[in-house]
Amino acid sequence: MDAVKRYFRSPAAVAGLILLLIVIAMAISAGWFYPRDPLALAGRPLVWPFSNPRFLLGTDNSGRDIAAQIFYGARISLLIGGVATAIAILIGILVGAFAGYYGGWVDNVLMRITEAFQTLPNFVLLLVLVAVFGSTLTTVTIAVGVVSWPAPARLTRAEFLSLRNREFVQAGRTLGMKNIQLIFGEILPNALPPVIVYASVVMAVAILLESALAFLRLSDPNVASWGNLIGLGRDVLRVQWYVSAIPGIAILVTVLAVSLVGQGLNDALNPRLKGR
Amino acid sequence: MRILSLAGRRLAASIPTLILILIGVFLLLQFAPGDTVDAMMAQMGGGDAATAKELRKFYGLDLSIPAQLGNYLWRLVRLDLGFSSIYGKPVASVILERLPPTILLMTASLSFAFFFGLVFGVIAARGVNRWPDTLISTLGLIFYATPSFWFGLMAIVVFSVYLQWLPPGGFEDIGVVRTGIWRALDIASHLVLPTLTLGLIFLAIYLRIMRASMLEVLNLDYVRTARAKGLDETHVVTRHVLRNALLPMVTLIGLQAGTMLGGSVVVESVFSLPGLGRLAYESVVQRDLNTLLGIVFVSALLVITVNFIVDLIYARLDPRITAEG
């Protein structure tokens, strides 16, 4: 309860939470405000924002409503960000837990693989994965998750290294508990808080990675995504720069909200480190 | 000498990592739809099955996958990265042509981010929780959340379209032949916006780390001693605090090298710079898998090199590393 109180005492954390709730509300209400397909033609192309009450944020190069694409784009960004983060954290926890708990050759092998993933630039690996498996919503989400797990794995491993010889683990061992029970039942719950806080960083990066991929037209072209829209707007950048500008602000706000919430959680859970 | 042998040992340890990456990506690319011969046939405008078979045999693509992998690794030892059917040149020379813009861009962005991250980090830490700190920290958060490609596009709109101060893209002006200093200045003016765009997110990261590490070091006993000796504040910060506070920053360069290379893929596409990143993007779009694999190899090599240099700098900044056995 203390942590919740500490969280709400920080104005930045509260602002982040409000922004995040707004983005979530946009994602939920998209179908309600804009029942039509956001990628369907809606009117004349390149209508400037605030010039036509029917299209509050104007229309893009082919006459699709930008506001509708922003609302539906919130769904895609949160979906890809959330699922990719879950995948990355899950792989990271498994790899980090086994490496940290068993040590020895298991640790050696797993850390070599982690190092390989960290040595290869993650965006280059993302390009390779998209080149091989194609760019549908599912493959892009999995690919973003697969390139993002090394950092959580290292974090989990460090936590396990410091916890694995504590008294409560030794007590469990003398009680005859199996390794798997010790890892997931005893150590993991104690190792989890910093990893969960770090998930916000993973999610922020995942949203940025997907939008960059979409901007390069290597993500799923059949969904309304903010990155896709920025890529389209690039063709009319010289005059109708708003087509690219608006979805960029949406990405900025979402990533900012996720980082602020993460930082707020971190400060609330580790009050000793506040201000760092 | 000790420094070199220590860093050299780290370098040797990265060779298995490199081999692991190559084997992994090589096997991954076996799942890709279509091979080099398919790409070549498409370039030639089609052909019959017999020609395709002949070509596969010529390029060793009819062998089993382990044999192909062995061949590839053996050719790599001789620095032969294979042949790019799209560019009609050996992959090594295609990559070598594209390397200078990327290295220039990365060095410039890193210097920009490191220098201003350091300066702003120090200013923020000196005025902790007062308005300069709040302003700098807020800006840092916003920079961190800004998608680089979007920032690049907006910078083009402002500085190239409206103000017309800087060129919107390309590596140099190909309309006019320039030599010497004028050519260098021309290239520099083309690189201003890409450098800012790529460096922005790293500036945000560096200033945050610098601020945290300054705050930590400022509270240590030896700093109090230095102040008690009667040294003025500037002297304490520059001579005593900075050197120790810089260590996490230097570590970060090594950790971020890969991210920066990845970021240059996007930035080079925005500013149509003929660099390695843009080559990576083109080879994905054109399904030039030989080139893609070569880029994977070279970018891993680049990251390893950066880390080697970071090890050297680190040992230089922190004598404890070489003192301990």
UniProtKB/TrEMBL annotation, chain A:
Organism classification: Bacteria, Pseudomonadati, Pseudomonadota, Alphaproteobacteria, Hyphomicrobiales
The UniProt keywords, alphabetically, are: Cell membrane, Membrane, Peptide transport, Protein transport, Transmembrane, Transmembrane helix, Transport
Recorded source organism is Bradyrhizobium retamae
What are the GO BP annotations of this UniProt entry? peptide transport; protein transport; transmembrane transport
Q: Which GO terms describe its cellular component?
A: plasma membrane
Q: In the UniProt record, does the keyword Transport occur? A: yes
Tell me which residues make up the ABC transmembrane type-1 domain. Answer: 74-262
What is this protein identified as? ABC transporter permease
Pfam families registered for this protein in UniProt: BPD_transp_1, OppC_N
Answer whether the UniProt record assigns the keyword Iron-sulfur to this protein: no
Record field: transmembrane: 12-34, 78-102, 123-147, 195-218, 239-261
What is the predominant subcellular site recorded for this chain? membrane
Q: Which family does it belong to?
A: Belongs to the binding-protein-dependent transport system permease family.
TrEMBL record, chain B:
Q: Where is the ABC transmembrane type-1 domain?
A: 99-314
Instruction: Report if keyword Transport is assigned.
Output: yes
SUPFAM superfamilies (UniProt xref):
MetI-like
UniProt GO BP: transmembrane transport
List the PROSITE patterns hit by this protein, alphabetically: ABC_TM1 (PS50928)
Q: State the source organism's domain of life.
A: Bacteria
Cellular component (GO) terms are: plasma membrane
Primary location class: membrane
Q: What is this protein called?
A: ABC transporter permease
